[in-house]
């Protein structure tokens, strides 16, 4: 019998004693027994709390064992996936289970989701513009997709009478996309490739690939921004304020950012108001980020976003509206032994596929002064 059951039985007996005394008009004796009743009730309450705490502790241990078991299984599965890819790349013999774990692409093996996740984590450490765009996953290399071309009248029409408005509301247009291959070739010692592990892919391949991927994606995005931004004349930072207030439609303001380079950011970061307080504010959404008039400032290297000599450049742009980023999911890996034969190396090639297409350019302005 559990301790709490013994206490409950003792309490029941003690209460019967008190009731018997009361029935015989022995009030004083009954009152003398009541502290014992209250003490037992307190003991039962405390014992119940202890029992519940112990049950939770046992349950947590069981759950942790389940999680550890799942994690161990995931680790084993992931190790096997990477080991199988290594064997596939080297042309080594594989077990039936290993062959089943390798997803073959057009010209190589598709890297597992764990690698994709690792690249995503690493790209967050770079100034990636992709996350501000409208990212559209695709499983095909090319195709068409309808997108809004930007209506001047964003409201509903009375379908029975507002015929002209209905025509104006049909503002979608098909855009064509064709994803292209963007790759990175990495020379690897043959002995390293033969001992392929999760760490090989996530620690050696992923960091270099992630940085190169961000730079390539940024370049394509910047090309569209530069080609479709309308010039807005200004002589100082007040022009940025004027552009935000008068040119960007309120419906597009929410996702609008201020895109600049290091020199432009340094200029803004040194601005102060009449009381000497900085005009830039800490971003509530981005750790370590800054905002100007409520708009997030995104900073690129001077070489990535060049300005005219002795000038500073700023793009007031809603990248989500402007850029349709067609992202063909998955990274493909292949090798070539011939190119590095004399160095006892194997050249590892990792490929991603994407395309960037112009969308709604109503919130894209360039300021240079």
UniProtKB/TrEMBL annotation:
Domain Phage capsid-like C-terminal: 110-364
InterPro entries assigned to the protein according to its UniProt record, in alphabetical order: Phage_capsid, Phage_capsid-like_C
Chain intervals for the UniProt region annotation (Disordered): 48-73
Biased composition, class Basic and acidic residues, residue ranges: 56-73
Domain of life where this protein originates: Bacteria
Subcellular localization: Virion
UniProt feature coiled coil, ranges: none
NCBIfam families for this protein: major_cap_HK97
Protein name, entry field: Phage major capsid protein, HK97 family
